[in-house]
């Protein structure tokens, strides 16, 4: 039997290493978080979209429970750990679970052409919005 990752759909995107405080109040998510705390397990945060869920999410580790309420609500602090792709969603529990595959982002640095293109797109967006920002000229060297 394969293990399914509990999913917590939100209107946010979580990245590895990024903290995310949460106020947990819905019964299904109180159950999800309680089980994760009990079993010392991570859960997945996926962006909720109009058509359903995003295909990619990030696991969240509960690093602190900052407050618990008599009715079971809680304030927690999570931190992003591993990115994953949702292959299939399971709806057999009160909360969603996903059959997922974990992946690492490419650690390659962008090419100078990619950097120049990104800067030019940023300039165009700023111009469309009527904003100005001092960006390096394309001949200036940028490194990451």
Order of helices and strands: EEHEEEEH
Instruction: Give a quick account of the main beta sheet: strands, pairing sense, barrel closure.
Output: 5 strands, mixed, barrel
Overall mean confidence score, pLDDT: 88
In angstroms, what is the radius of gyration? Answer: 20 Å
Helix content: 10-25%
N-to-C CA distance: 44 Å
Q: Count the strands?
A: 6
How is this fold's topology laid out?
Elements: E1 5-10, E2 19-24, H1 27-39, E3 43-49, E4 52-68, E5 74-90, E6 97-103, H2 112-128
Parallel strand pairs: 1-3
Antiparallel strand pairs: 1-6, 2-5, 3-4, 4-5, 5-6
Structure characterization notes:
The chain has 144 residues and is an alpha+beta fold. 21% of the residues lie in helices and 42% in strands. The protein contains two helices and six strands. It has helices at 27-39, 112-128; strands at residues 5-10, 19-24, 43-49, 52-68, 74-90, 97-103. A five-stranded mixed barrel has the order 1-3-4-5-6. Strand 5 (74-90) and strand 6 form a beta hairpin. The chain is elongated and about 50 Å long. The mean pLDDT is 88.
